[in-house]
């Protein structure tokens, strides 16, 4: 069949007929599809097919090199109904991964969101402090979110199977949460922790069936990698992956949860969100979310508080990625002796160095406010938040500041809530306790 071109009539009609663009376009598409189908199925050169649109009978009628012989064969395709070779796929492992993801999602579905607490400060009538209580997670800390994301990320990347040994380097809280999910999935878990981690954290890791190896602070990374190589396991490496395993655009991450809970407050968009850095993953998520949401970015800034014996503040000020120190942070869960890969200074608007005595004094003051104990990193967060509130009041600026309760204080009864331990560290809390009274004084 040859396509004929209709020539215009010598005597055009007096009225111009209506021309259907959609019908013409459809016809062109149909012809193009038909030609493409023929090209895919007829193994003869393009000129032969274009001229005759059929298989040549006696060689190539155009006397081209084809001579009726194919210059191109269509790719081999399985016959209709034939089975593809999928013998290389490990369906048993795929089934286990699918069930593992389902278990983690079901665990999340059983959990309610963490509470947002409004703290009344009589000395600050125009400024409000909000605390998002992350200690109510099943494993008692903010790190529960990170552990869940790390497992889902590793499962969906094919790094974890039914016999994989999970290894992590941790200051304690992340290891507790990862041990929880390892037990949920029936996996062996080994945590490499710093020497001096609170005994209650070690006991909690053991409660969830995890094992611990205590080493010097600077050796936790190398030891975790050594154990992983020895056992053929998977190294979670929270310090590298924390900033990327969470969807910072939303999907019920901590930033989206915080701002949605603030939506009906008098100051729905806080002037500051305050966070401390352990891996740097949570501050990266919050900072990115603020910039992603233009309505929030116009009002809210991110401040990161850093304790003593940590390099994050110095890195933020100097930009030097190779800073190292040989001591560990007294405030468990935050502060690092080196700059971690997940720490993202470009999404941080301000950093504040908080003395350890101020952090510990703040959790003792907060115990009287909330009627409960909080961990040391919460003290670091709240001290920085109160400093910002004091600055706002001095400038006559009404607004709010939001921060986190990272974990409960029950894990630190033998350290931060032990007078003998505080004295042994040479910490004087009294000047900071006196300063904190300003916030509760009418």
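-> sequence recovered:
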């Amino acid at each position: 069949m040859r396509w004929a071109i209709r020539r215009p009539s010598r005597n055009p009609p007096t009225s111009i007929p209506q021309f259907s663009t959609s019908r013409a376009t459809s016809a062109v598409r149909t012809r193009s599809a038909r030609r493409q189908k023929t090209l895919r199925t007829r193994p003869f050169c393009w000129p032969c097919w274009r001229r005759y649109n059929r298989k040549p009978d006696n060689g190539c009628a155009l006397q081209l090199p084809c001579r009726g012989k194919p210059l191109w064969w269509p790719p081999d395709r399985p016959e209709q109904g034939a089975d593809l070779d999928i013998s290389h796929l490990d369906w048993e492992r795929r089934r286990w991964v699918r069930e593992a993801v389902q278990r983690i999602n079901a665990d999340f579905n059983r959990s309610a969101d963490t509470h947002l607490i409004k703290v009344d400060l009589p000395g600050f009538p125009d400024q409000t402090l909000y605390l998002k209580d992350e200690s109510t997670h099943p494993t008692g800390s903010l790190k529960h979110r990170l552990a869940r994301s790390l497992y889902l990320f590793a499962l969906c990347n094919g790094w974890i199977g039914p016999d994989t040994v999970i290894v992590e380097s941790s200051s304690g809280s992340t290891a507790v949460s990862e041990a929880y999910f390892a037990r949920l999935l029936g996996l062996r878990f080994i945590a490499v922790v710093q020497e001096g981690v609170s005994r209650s954290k070690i006991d909690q890791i053991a409660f969830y069936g995890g094992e611990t190896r205590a080493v010097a602070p600077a050796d936790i990374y190398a030891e975790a990698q050594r154990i992983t190589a020895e056992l053929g396991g998977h190294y979670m490496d929270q310090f590298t992956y924390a900033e990327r395993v969470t969807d910072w655009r939303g999907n019920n991450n901590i930033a989206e949860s915080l701002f949605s809970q603030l939506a009906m407050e008098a100051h729905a968009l806080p002037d500051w969100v305050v966070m401390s850095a352990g891996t740097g993953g949570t501050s990266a998520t919050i900072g990115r979310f603020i910039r992603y949401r233009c309505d929030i970015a116009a009002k809210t800034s991110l401040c990161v508080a850093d304790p003593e014996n940590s390099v994050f503040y110095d890195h933020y000020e100097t930009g030097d990625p190779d800073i190292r120190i040989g001591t560990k942070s007294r405030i468990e869960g935050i502060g690092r002796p080196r700059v971690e890969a997940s720490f993202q200074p470009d999404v941080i608007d301000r950093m504040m160095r908080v003395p350890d005595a101020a952090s510990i004094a703040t959790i003792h003051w907060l115990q009287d406010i909330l009627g409960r104990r909080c961990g040391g990193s919460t003290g670091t967060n709240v001290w920085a938040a109160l400093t910002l509130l004091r600055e706002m009041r001095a400038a006559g600026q009404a607004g709010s500041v939001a921060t986190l309760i990272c974990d409960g204080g029950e894990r630190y009864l033998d350290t931060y809530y032990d007078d003998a331990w505080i004295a042994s560290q040479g910490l004087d809390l009294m000047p900071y306790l006196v300063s904190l009274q300003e916030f509760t004084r009418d």
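Residues 142-241 form a domain with the Rossmann fold fold (CATH 3.40.50.1100).
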